Amino acid sequence: MCQEEKPHAPSCDKNKKPILDCLWPLLKDKSNLLEIGSGTGQHAVFMAPHLKHLTWTLSDIKDRQRGMSLWLREEPIINVKGPILYEIGKNTPHFPKSVKPFDVVFTSNTLHILNWKNVERLFKDLKENLEKETLFIAYGAFKFDGKYTTESNKEFDDWLKEKDTNSGLKNFEDITQKLLENNFNLLEKINMPANNNLLVYKKQ
Ligand SMILES: C[S@@+](CC[C@H](N)C(=O)[O-])C[C@H]1O[C@@H](n2cnc3c(N)ncnc32)[C@H](O)[C@@H]1O
Q1: What is the pTM of this model?
Q2: In the chain, where the domains are located
């Protein structure tokens, strides 16, 4: 019988270890992580076994649910929950609920996929659904002062816009300002390999 093949994102193989190295000190006192736009779920499959003190909940849009389930079926991990449905910009289902409040929300490579309206919607959801002290951590490529940091990031942005004119790299200052308006202060901006950044915000 043919086995259904699980989706594979090569970029996750490259960035999972550097991201984990940065997340580890930030997450050492956290217990309940929600990941938004988990994609294949590969980050959780790699990272959660190194973060056994917390629960990692996967979420994404409907089309991604099956792929994540295939990864978890092959490698069940005791502290990974989900996948659950969360589509930013859709009223149903609304922001993921948890009996114990999420104390960290992580998202990787999603902000450049979302249009600006959905970025605003996401930040509003974070404001309305998370408690004080909750961390919001976003990994990906960003522009700074409206400028690309490298030619390769510009090419990446052109490629994204060719596929969807409303997507594309977001400006770090715009993200930070919009999060501030939603009660999140910037804690850290960490330079990552391949011209990416890990942005860390905390709810006030
Ligand atoms: C480039 S992938 C990143 C996947 C994974 N986090 C990674 O780093 O490889 C962007 C993800 O955002 C998700 N996404 C797109 N629009 C979304 C929305 N409106 N709400 C939630 N997730 C969304 C996609 O389904 C996809 O999994």
Answers
A1: 0.97
A2: 10-203
Position 194 confidence tier, pLDDT thresholds 50, 70, 90? very high
Q: What is the CATH code of the structural domain delimited by 10-203?
A: 3.40.50.150
pLDDT in the model for residue 162? 97
Ligand 1: which atom is nearest the Cα of residue 9? Answer: 9
Q: In this predicted model, what pLDDT tens digit does every residue of 45-92 receive, in sequence order? A: 999 999 999 999 999 999 999 999 999 998 889 999 999 999 999 977
Mutate to test the pocket of ligand 1, among 19, 42, 61, 62 (most ligand atoms within 8 A of CB): 61
In this structure, the residue with its CA closest to atom 12 of ligand 1 is: 37
The residues lining ligand 1, judged by C-beta closer than 6 Å to any ligand atom, are: 9, 11-12, 37-39, 60-61, 64, 86-89, 108-110, 113-114, 118
Question: 30-66 in b/e burial notation, b at 16+ Cβ within 10 A?
Answer: bebbbbbbbbbbbbbbbbbeebeebbbbbbbeeebbe
